Amino acid sequence: MIPSVSEAEAANELMRLAKAIARHNRLYHAEDAPEISDAEYDALVRRNAELEAAFPHLVRADSPSRGVGHEVAASPLSKVRHEVRMMSLDNAFSDAEVEEFVARIRRFLALPGDAPIAFTAEDKIDGLSCSLRYEGGVLVRAATRGDGEVGEDVTANVAHIPDIPQKLRGQVPAVFEVRGEVYMAKDDFAALNVAQHEAGGKIFATPRNAAAGSLRQKDAGITAQRRLRFWAHGWGATSDLPEPGQFAMVKRMESWGLPVSPDLVLCRSVAEMLGHYRDIGRRRASLPYDIDGVVYKVDDLALQRRLGAVGKAPRWALAHKFPAEQAETTLEKIDIQVGRTGKLTPVGRLSPVLVGGVTVVNVTLHNRDEIARLGLREGDRIVVQRAGDVIPQVVENLTRDERRPAFEFPGHCPVCGSEAVAEEGEVDVRCTGGLVCKAQQFERLRHFVSRGALDIEGLGEKTIAEFMELGWLDKGPPDIFRLKLHRSDLIGRDGWQERSVDNLLAAIESKRSPDAARLLFGLGIRHVGAVTARDLMKRFHELPVLRSTAQDAARGDPAALGELTSIEGVGPAVVEALGDFFHEEHNRAVWDDLLQEVAPPRYEVQTLESAVSGKTVVFTGKLETISRDEAKAQAERLGAKAAGSVSAKTDLIVAGPGAGSKLKKAAELGIEVIDEAAWAEIVASVGQ
Ligand SMILES: NC(=O)c1ccc[n+]([C@@H]2O[C@H](COP(=O)([O-])OP(=O)(O)OC[C@H]3O[C@@H](n4cnc5c(N)ncnc54)[C@H](O)[C@@H]3O)[C@@H](O)[C@H]2O)c1
Ligand SMILES: [Zn+2]
């Protein structure tokens, strides 16, 4: 859901999206001259769908989720009304969305989980759709999709496409409309652009634009000079369907002399579908034509009929797109954020763009040097990259202009106004305001109460900001434990009632004996992350012992230094950071103050005795109630080892849907397999 958007804002945004999407549809479909990247366009469509899902009563009559393509009113070609509507396809970017697509079909058809259902999978070729009407096996009309209802007559144009037979071979129904894609191969596209350049003609952005621009010509003579190709993937109006399934029908069309995808397969499970997707994905770059995904279709035509269509797309088909790992967009604005340690981080605010399957609106610009390196300014067109789970990066500035100065990095903290400087040899610019800087205070408090640290429920960003404003947190984290002194002031403030206040205070009180490693991590000492904090506490058990050792080491005591660096994962950077921390008077004051308020028990690592203690567990497939990371953490707490792959050493496999090859291997090795519910029972049995 989109809780931060009010109804009025949503209505407004939906109106703006409808206008923008209609405009880009016209540029792309009618003029073959898009202004934004497909990834930016897809981000607009996703945003529209999200808002419509959250506010169903605001769906507009002219909603972009309803229409297909673009109407052909202004086209110089004559118009053709399609007897059977030409549709679009719903799309997916992740495995989970494909699983949900299949699950949705099962629910719709009320098919039990184990009833087999087959799907075809084939390339989603990036061209433009075309309908070819054959009567008595002879081509009588070819038409583009247009808005799905009315397209353009391109009969004369397709006469110049050798892949499109004027006459079909064999037993063809009396009326048969072939649906497929007109496309241009990569080589032909490159050659066309070279020729266009030499002749001073229009340069096409993609093979798809080139194919569309070449086919939709009033003068078919121009089409004749372009090398266009075609393949069939479906059908429209027909007097007869000679086969009962999608796969067999496509093969039948092939036998009539129509080219079809060489990568059409029949799949019997989601795993097979995803396998084919990955296989095609691997070969994508070496294919002679551009594809942008894989299309899955329910094979059984009787089931296709039962499923029908919703909106502008059939329920029985899905385009599983290859997420663009790079995409073009506009850098709207550069903001400066001040972190816990005073570091000024530039953040780029983007015009939303779909990269790697997710909508990206912010991108870190890292530091001053990075901005200079890319010559970035607000308003520039940039290329954003996101591969796998990596955070998005700017890889290129498309409007780079050496003569114009890049964004000027501020010399002062935007929050407290203190001077901001980079230390000798450092790229990071830091605010020198220290604890005077509200931004740093805020970030430290936020970190202190965060999930990995003290994990205080109900003390979110807004509340911290509110209490800071009231001056209740001036002394930093220890003040949190004195908030109870403000109980009566707080009750009755806007948004607070006795109950919510007492809940918050109870959550704080419950942390009076915190885990020492979490407390240490919560202090936000540089280089002391959650793991290092645990490693340190495993060795020293008590915070005062850690402190005295760190201070001794900072004074150069070799024994203390040796003790610290003998801990795995603790190197000179950590030792120095600890030394620097305790060197600061105000840090020592906060530390002492804090240890007056809380009393962490002696730190001991404990694992629980359980049915899986000492065993090696592998999690595979999709877990529904917990994340993979949480499952692994549970296993560790139960004294088990979580491994990534199945081997002879594996004792137990916890499998969710889509587990695939690991299950096969488990069966071969005779390893016990349980489902997520059984795993949850094991966890519950030790009270975790
Ligand atoms: N950049 C822009 O401004 C802009 C504007 C509009 C649309 N677009 C692009 O066009 C897409 C939307 O266009 P759309 O509605 O035509 O959807 P689509 O192109 O994502 O999918 C539907 C089409 O896929 C084609 N297709 C290819 N292979 C197929 C196969 N094997 N089986 C069935 N169909 C197959 C069909 O022609 C079908 O009409 C967007 O996702 C975007 O990428 C871009
Ligand atoms: Zn500051």
Q: What does this protein structure show overall?
A:
The chain is α+β, with helices and mostly antiparallel strands. Helix content is 38%, strand content 19%. The protein is built from 25 helices and 24 strands. Strands 2-13-10-3-9 form a 5-stranded mixed beta sheet. A 5-stranded antiparallel beta sheet has the order 16-15-14-17-18. A 4-stranded antiparallel beta sheet has the order 5-4-7-8. β4 (128-135) and β5 form a beta hairpin. The longest helix has 24 residues, at 7-30. It is globular. The mean pLDDT is 90. Residues 338, 413, 415-416, 418, 431, 433, 437, 439 line the site of zinc ion. Zinc ion binds next to loops.
If you consult CATH, what is the topology of the largest domain?
D-amino Acid Aminotransferase, Chain A, domain 1
The radius of gyration computed from the alpha-carbon positions, rounded to a whole number of angstroms, is: 31 Å
- Give the strand order of the largest sheet, numbering strands 1, 2, ... along the chain: 2-13-10-3-9
CA(first)-CA(last) distance: 30 Å
User: What are the bound molecules?
Assistant: nicotinamide-adenine-dinucleotide, zinc ion
Which CATH class of the largest domain? Alpha Beta
Write down the domain tally. Answer: 6
Q: Summarize the amount of helix as a percent range.
A: 25-40%
Rounded mean pLDDT score: 90
Largest sheet: 5 strands, mixed
Q: Count of helical segments?
A: 25
Q: CATH homologous superfamily of the largest domain, by name? A: DNA ligase/mRNA capping enzyme
CATH architectural label of the largest domain: 2-Layer Sandwich
Approximate strand percentage:
15-25%
Give the total of beta strands.
24
The SS-based structural class is: alpha+beta
Tell the overall outline: globular
Q: Poorly predicted ranges (pLDDT <50, ≥5 residues)?
A: none
